[in-house]
Design a protein that fits this description.
Strand 2 and strand 3 form a beta hairpin. The protein has 156 residues and is of the alpha+beta class. The radius of gyration is 15 Å and the shape is globular. The protein has one domain: Alpha-Beta Complex (Nucleoside Triphosphate Pyrophosphohydrolase). Strands 1, 4, 5, 6 and 7 form a 5-stranded mixed β-sheet that branches. A 3-stranded antiparallel β-sheet has the order 3-2-8. It contains 4 helices and 8 strands.
């Protein structure tokens, strides 16, 4: 297995409300399998699937809507390692390598967490500054890097 095979290809999304850009509220969801852990929607890219296909498939699978548009994309793949406890359940992967997108919900979007395989208990929109206080410690460096990039680009 080569180094690239150690990281699961994944898409991740920072979703802003339909009030964007006037209000820069970011969607964050509480996981249903880890107590009080909040995160951005994300998911694996299937073999042969294009990144944007995976993005919208995961959007629908995780929050029950396709009604969003891409505002921006982080320009490179970014990776993180799983904590040991999670890595045991994700073999053969030691982490994820992700493509990040900034998405804006359309006015007609209806969020529905009761999807076929629910991953989240609840969600809320928070300020950019609140996000890092709520997220899992092992994802913070990636979240911080991506958020800072979108801030520097004038998106957040």
């Amino acid at each position: 297995m080569n180094k690239e095979d150690l990281y699961r290809p994944n898409v991740a999304m920072i979703i802003v409300s339909n009030n964007y850009p006037q209000k820069k509220e970011i969607f964050i969801a509480q996981r249903n399998d880890l107590t009080d852990i909040w995160q951005f929607p994300q998911g694996g890219i299937d073999k042969g699937e294009k990144v944007q296909e995976a993005l919208f498939r995961e959007l629908e699978e995780e929050i029950g809507t396709l009604k969003a548009k891409v505002v921006a994309e982080y320009p490179e793949w970014i990776s993180y390692d799983f904590p040991e406890k999670i890595a045991k359940t994700m073999k053969p992967y030691k982490g994820q390598i992700q493509r990040y997108f900034l998405l804006k919900l359309k006015k007609s979007a209806k969020i529905n967490l009761q999807t076929k395989h629910p991953e989240f208990l609840s969600y809320k929109f928070v300020s950019v500054d609140e996000v890092l206080d709520l997220t899992a410690h092992f994802k913070k460096p990636v979240y911080e890097k991506v958020i800072n990039y979108f801030k520097a680009e004038g998106h957040l």
